[in-house]
């Protein structure tokens, strides 16, 4: 009987699952997702190599095998990308020849695929919101198991081809790469936390933990990692620059080797792809050459800036054509030593940048001993990284003379450590001291004596303006008094000068009034408007000239009472024409109208 919804017990009365069963019911989903992700990552890598090998096999003008051989080669190349050594069975001498030079560019493909698969397994999908929470351990385990499952199948399949893997290397390197790349993907998915490392460090004794893994030690480690990364980048970049310059210098030999190696278009395309995959290896070789130890092109044949031994018979290959010729070192070859110097300077500069940041507080800078310790640690990390790169970039390419091909890892590590410690430590200490120096205090400016001021001129006291006196009322002019009879003639005065031609009747004595003429009259005031003035030179019928209005006088101080009390002089008497004629003929009359006596006449 199937229980209907009415017969089902309520949720509160249901029996809950045990916690262990609950966790086991959730775990398979995350584990399965990890297994699928790891298998897909391995399958994608195999598919890339399979497609490439199949295309080259199809385009080859002389295919000497079927598609199965192309797939065997693809599986072998996929294992070679993980660092595994291969063995070439079909040789002219019949002796198997090892192929151990791993193209470093191929190594980036499987690492990226496994890292991406582990990160997606933790995230639960592209939307970043998993329905069921997946722990990091579960996702990591699933990805590693899925990848190794497909990798084991590829290993078994590649073992039946002409280019088969050597069993000792795939069994060690394939799991190591899968474990490391998956752990990096899980750590990235969780935001790169530090608590997993702290959980491991809890088991370390407290005194050792404080000294080696405290806050100050972590800052020192971070500075060392940054400095080591800068040093490795500078070394590898300098090596790549040397390879490019050498290829340009030996351009003719490089082109000849590329054309002689194969004739078909597909073959040349395969050689070009191989050269591109070996470019990182060539950069590491160039860095080893600049460091001093150089690299080996066979047993007993070392090429370095100091000397180059005669090379054995090498196959024509474009990258090998750029190798410097044999002979002693020259100043041009010694110039490559600037690459490790620049690398060591970069290490010291980055460590000093953390120890004493530019523009930071001088009191917060690291002590000198701590800066030197961080620089030495960065040199150790840089030497370790360069040793690992040198070990991966080289390997055997055959037997006998070709058993050693590439740089020697321990020599490269020792040379890197020597260069870095010798140059980076003084650079870091010097930069730190320069940034922590006390700023120079500018000397106080000398006070120049104040210029002597000229004595101020003695100024006379400015008189205080006295208040203007109240103007006194202008007295009303009284009427002119009637002149009394003159008993004696008035003094003779000369007439005022008249512009123009002198009249004939003015040639006599002026100023003598004629007989029967009235006495002198007062001239009208010039300031009274409307007055008319008659020119004595004009005739009686002439029109009177209007008097010129007086110009308003500038206000001045009022006149003193003494000056105003002085009576004005009486105006000169006016003469008529008859008086002027009488004066001309010498006949004068008295005021009463009687003729003047001879004594009264003018001389």
Alpha plus pi helix count: 17
Which H/E pattern describes the elements?
Answer: HHEEHHEHHHHHHHEEEEHHHEHEEHH
**Quaternary structure classification:** single chain
Low-confidence stretches: 1-18, 20-27, 127-131, 497-505, 507-565
Helical residues, percent? 40-55%
**Tertiary shape:** extended
Sequence of strands across the biggest β-sheet: 2-1-3
Protein name: DUF6350 family protein
Keywords: Membrane, Transmembrane, Transmembrane helix
Biased composition (Low complexity): 507-529, 544-567
Region (Disordered): 438-577
Describe the structure.
Residues 438-577 are annotated as: Disordered. Residues 507-529, 544-567 have a biased composition (Low complexity). Residues 446-498 have a biased composition (Pro residues). InterPro entries: DUF6350. The protein is mainly alpha-helical and 603 residues long. It is built from 17 helices and 10 strands. The strands form 4 sheets. It has a 3-stranded antiparallel sheet, covered by helices on one side. Strands 5-4-8 form a 3-stranded antiparallel sheet. The chain has a two-stranded antiparallel ribbon with strand order 6-7. The termini are far apart. 28% of the residues are buried.
Overview in brief:
This protein has helices spanning 19-59, 67-80, 104-123, 136-158, 170-189, 195-201, 206-213, 215-249, 251-261, 265-277, 279-291, 331-334, 338-355, 368-393, 409-435, 561-565, 577-585; strands at residues 86-88, 97-99, 163-165, 295-297, 302-303, 307-308, 327-328, 405-406, 532-533, 545-546. The chain is mostly helical and 603 residues long. The chain starts with 18 loop residues before the first helix and ends in an 18-residue tail after the last helix.
């Amino acid at each position: 009987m199937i229980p209907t919804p009415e017969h089902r017990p309520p949720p509160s009365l249901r029996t809950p699952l045990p916690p262990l069963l609950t966790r086991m019911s959730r775990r398979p989903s995350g584990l399965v997702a990890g297994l699928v992700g790891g298998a897909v990552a391995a399958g994608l890598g195999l598919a890339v190599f399979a497609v490439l090998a199949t295309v080259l096999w199809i385009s080859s003008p002389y295919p000497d095998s079927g598609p199965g051989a192309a797939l065997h080669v693809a599986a072998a190349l996929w294992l070679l990308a993980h660092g595994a050594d291969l063995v070439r069975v079909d040789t002219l001498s019949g002796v198997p020849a090892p192929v151990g030079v791993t193209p470093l560019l191929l190594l980036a493909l499987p690492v990226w695929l496994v890292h991406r698969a582990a990160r997606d397994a933790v995230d639960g999908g592209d939307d970043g919101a998993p329905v069921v929470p997946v722990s990091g351990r579960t996702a990591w385990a699933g990805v590693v198991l899925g990848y190794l499952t497909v990798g084991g199948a590829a290993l078994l399949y590649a073992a039946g081809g002409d280019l088969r893997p050597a069993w000792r290397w795939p069994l060690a390197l394939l799991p190591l790469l899968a474990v490391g790349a998956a752990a990096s993907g899980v750590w990235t998915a969780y935001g790169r936390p530090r608590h997993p490392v702290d959980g491991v460090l809890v088991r370390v004794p407290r005194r050792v933990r404080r000294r080696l893994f405290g806050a100050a030690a972590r800052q020192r480690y971070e500075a060392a990692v940054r400095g080591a990364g800068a040093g490795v980048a500078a070394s590898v970049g300098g090596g790549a620059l040397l390879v490019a310059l050498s290829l340009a210098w030996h351009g003719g030999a490089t082109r000849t080797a590329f054309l002689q190696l194969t004739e078909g278009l597909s073959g040349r395309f395969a050689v070009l792809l191989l050269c591109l995959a070996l470019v990182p290896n060539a950069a590491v070789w160039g860095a080893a050459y600049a460091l001093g130890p150089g690299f080996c092109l066979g047993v007993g044949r070392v090429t370095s800036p100091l000397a180059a031994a005669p090379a054995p018979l090498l196959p024509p290959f474009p990258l090998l054509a750029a190798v410097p010729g044999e002979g002693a070192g020259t100043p041009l070859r010694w110039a490559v030593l600037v690459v490790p110097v620049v690398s060591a300077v970069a290490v010291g500069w980055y460590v000093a940048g953390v120890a004493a940041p530019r523009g930071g507080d001088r009191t917060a800078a690291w002590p000198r001993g701590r800066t030197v310790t961080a620089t030495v640690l960065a040199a150790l990390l840089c030497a370790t990284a360069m040793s690992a790169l040198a070990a991966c970039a080289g390997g055997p390419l055959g037997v006998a003379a070709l058993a050693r091909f590439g740089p020697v890892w321990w020599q490269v590590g020792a040379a890197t450590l020597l260069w870095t410690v010798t140059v980076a430590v003084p650079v870091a200490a010097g930069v730190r001291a320069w940034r922590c120096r006390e700023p120079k205090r500018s000397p106080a400016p000398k006070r120049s004596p104040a210029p002597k001021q000229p004595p101020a001129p003695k100024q006379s006291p400015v008189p205080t303006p006295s208040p203007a006196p109240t103007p006194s009322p202008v007295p009303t002019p009284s009427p002119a008094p009637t002149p009394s009879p003159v008993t004696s003639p008035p003094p003779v005065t000369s007439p005022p000068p008249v512009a123009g031609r002198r009249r004939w009747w003015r040639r006599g004595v002026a100023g003598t009034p004629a007989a029967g003429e009235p006495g002198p009259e007062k001239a009208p005031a010039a300031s009274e408007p409307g007055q008319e003035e008659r020119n004595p030179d004009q005739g009686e019928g002439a029109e009177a000239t209007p008097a010129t209005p007086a110009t308003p006088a500038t206000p001045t101080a009022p006149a003193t009472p003494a000056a105003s009390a002085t009576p004005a002089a009486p105006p000169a008497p006016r003469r008529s024409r008859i008086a002027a004629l009488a004066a001309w003929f010498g006949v004068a009359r008295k005021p009463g109208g009687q003729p003047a006596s001879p004594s009264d006449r003018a001389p």
